[in-house]
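[agent] plan:
  1. take the single chain provided in the ticket
  2. run structure prediction with default settings
  3. attach structure tokens to the ticket
  4. add a short note for the reviewer (M.T.)
[agent] executing step 1
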Amino acid sequence: MDAMQNPSDPAGQLDLNLDLNLGIELQDDLEGDTLREECGVFGIFGHPEAAAITALGLHALQHRGQEAAGIVSFDGSRFHSERRLGLVGDTFSRREVIERLPGSMAVGHVRYSTTGATILRNVQPLFAELNAGGFAVGHNGNLTNGLTLRRELVKGGAMMQSTTDTEVILHLVAQSRRARFVDRFIEALKALEGAYSLVALTNKKLIGARDPLGIRPLVLGDLDGHPILTSETCALDMIGAKYVRDVDPGEILVFDEEGAHSHKPFPPRPPRPCIFEYIYFSRPDSIVGGRSVYEVRKAFGAQLARESHVEVDVVVPVPDSGVPAAIGYSQYSGVPFELGIIRNHYVGRTFIQPTQSVRELGVRMKHSANRAAIEGKRIILIDDSLVRGTTSKKIVRMMRDAGAREVHFRLASPPILYPDYYGIDLPDRGGLLAATHSLEEMRDIIGADSLAFLSIDGMYRAMGEPGWDPANPKFSDHCFTGAYPTHLTDQTQVEPQPRQLSLLAEAS
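[agent] step 2 finished; step 3 output follows
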């Protein structure tokens, strides 16, 4: 059952919504240089505690989406759905909720919206009753022809219940005239462009699918003989499951009572996994594409030290995403690593009142200077990426206010020059600092003594590649190069497109 507003307490709900809305602008300001995570998916087949296992898996994937979470289960005769706004632990840690999700198969989803507003009807997994039976689907990624498909479906009589691009998959499957469900599913996927990793559930099958370029991650695990599909290996570690393998790009995996079935209906193409899984999105303890995310981020930092080191006294990470790169920088350069910035992990929206005086202190609500580690010292700040520079500017000023003698800024990724259309929340190119300013202008805006980014070639070398080959890129690196790996059908339409929800709106 979906969450419903309590009619006996409408005022309480109104107050909560008001607090959430009032806090959004300041929260956006606090995270002005932070990339928003995409989404996370999880599915399990044949386990008597499928919903509880799924909830634990989603908890491990919470970093991929904090706006909403949902689980759909099947008990042999009926589908059951629980979808909520908010964090996994706020809903799915309660016994009574899990008890409303009986069955031995389930799929789950944590969400950050890149298409569709943050409202309950957009929370996934989406579910529909089709001619062949119930069908639930959770989607990590973004379809670059989702709006075009949506218009065509609506013109053909489809009635959309959400504003998310995932719903077009339900309609495409429903309209297919193929006899077998898996063939209907394949036919639907062949109409899609862009990035997707899907987990889907029917009354007989658990299905996983990855886009032909493997832009979004999806892995196969095993828990005591029960197959699991999920976005990252950290979810397998959470529940004590074994990693089996990555789902191949373009592969569709189907699990039913007869076993596992692999389908590869797409012509093979060179994979283009998203480079930002290594830079920012994946948890450091995950293994993505056979690489330890933690070790890759340390390698980014070491490469950064090779390319742009200056004489300083301490290396300071911008927590938390800058920590592994700062460790790598420190280890390679020999400069001591210090926690010169302490992060408050408990900054929320509901208690924040956006008065001007609080807004001016906003960055200090999330990051505080550790004066003892930086006063009187020359420091290098290490962060994973830079989007528009708002928070970076405030952190540099905070370091100077705390007595830092020099503040040098280093980014463990190349300059972001182009927007993303595959599930990363980035502004249009005009909102990207590196796309509109020179390096010296950016340094001046941020207020640092020096500024440098990891080179594209250095990024590839840190990944264990011989270097960057623009004619044959190994990753989806379009945010740095403009080399988009798929068609951008929706971006070429004449009709205006709804902009992605952005955390990067300029704070007043």
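[agent] step 4 note for reviewer: The chain has two domains: 32-272, 292-484.
[agent] ticket updated
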